[in-house]
Amino acid sequence: MHVLVTGATGLIGSNLVPLLLEQGYIVKVLVRDPDKAQKLLPPNVEICAGHLNDEKAIEKAMRGCQYLFHLAADYRLWVPDPQSMYTTNVDGTRLLMGKALEAGIERIVYTSSVCTLGYNADGTPANEDLPTCLDDMISPYKKSKFLAEKAVSRMVKENGLPAVIVNPSTPVGPGDSRPTPTGAMILNTARDGGRFYAATGLNIAHVEDIARGHILALQKGFIGQKYILGGDNLHLKELFAITAHAAGKPGPVCKVPPAVLYPLAVVSEFLARLGLVKEPIATLDSIRMASKIMFYSSQKAEVELGYTHRPAIRAVEDSIQWFRKNGMLD
User: Fold this and answer.
1) Which residue from 281, 264, 263, 260 is spatially nearest to 272, judged by alpha carbons?
2) What is the pLDDT of residue 290?
3) For residue 238, what pLDDT is reported?
4) What is the pLDDT of residue 262?
5) Backbone phi, then psi, for 201, in 5-degree steps?
6) pLDDT of residue 270
7) Euclidean distance between CA atoms 165 and 229, whole angstroms
């Protein structure tokens, strides 16, 4: 059972690879940075250098594999050149799926995101069937993931691509070395208590549960179907409160209205475009997203795959413990 994993050094990927090894899979990874992969991944993993637009590297990495997990993506809330994100997330996915068909890959799990799905304005949990369109996608990242998911679905219908799609919610837990935007929020809240918060909500899932959900999708998922891999729905104030409590900090005290955040985002993006800061503190897209309650249900994955998730507090506690162990809370 030879399997290729893209995005193996990311938060979900670095949790998926050890689980695959535990279940007896022989794992190859396609990564941009082999040195990083050697540090993050177990030693009995074959590392192939390359990226999603590297045709020869993809062909070499796929050789001898029966299964493919495609997790790699350019995940940034702000990017000075959106086209680079489309090149990786959309064009790279199309190329990878085409090469998988040529190589005779037997089964594929494509990692999309709940950001490609619709949401209910009243805050009730949404599922995989809620209608949405490209115009509903706010940021270049969301648009690129939406288009990539559509490309995979189209290839399933038109070319017989043997792909199952998973839509993880917000992963939290060990291995967040970058960290992800949500991981950064948890890290900062663990440091200062997250005293200021926006009136938004999101679905928090332990990254290890999401990684296990990927394997369940490979083993039990129906070709062409989408499965939300999520956890608990929390308002941002609740997330900050449990994070602060776990870290022994005072917790959130003040809700910040969008009218205050928009000017900050405009100035922050302007400074980033001038190169005076590496990344903006806040972006217009992130503030627009923060005005929506993005709650989701994993019921379909629970029924069809046997997916389960632990409480969000466990994800937060394990995340804080990992940050502390790796010197990131100092």
Assistant:
1) 281
2) 66
3) 95
4) 64
5) -150, 150
6) 67
7) 10
Question: Considering Cα of 14, then 15, then 16, then 19, what sign does the dihedral take?
Answer: positive
Nearest CA-CA partner of 233 in 293, 160, 158, 146: 293
Interatomic CA distance for residues 177 and 161, integer angstroms: 33
Find the angle CA(326)-CA(327)-CA(328) to the nearest 5 degrees: 95
The domain made up of 2-172+205-230+295-307 has a fold known as Rossmann fold (3.40.50)
Q: At which residue do the structure tokens 């917000």 appear?
A: 170
Interatomic CA distance for residues 268 and 292, integer angstroms: 22
| Spatial CB neighbours of 140, under 8 Å, sequence gap ≥ 6 | 79, 82, 85, 86, 285
Residue ranges of the domains in the chain?
Answer: 2-172+205-230+295-307
Whether the link from the prior residue into 179 is cis, omega within 30° of 0, is yes
Would you give the end-to-end CA distance of the chain in angstroms?
A: 42
Helix (H/G/I), strand (E/B), else coil: 186: helix
- The list of the chain residues with pLDDT below 50 reads none
Residue 257 amino acid letter: P
Structure confidence at residue 291 (pLDDT): 67
d(CA 16, CA 264): 37
Neighbours of 242 (CB within 10 A): 22
70: its two tokens: 């495609």
In this prediction, residue 278 carries a pLDDT of 72
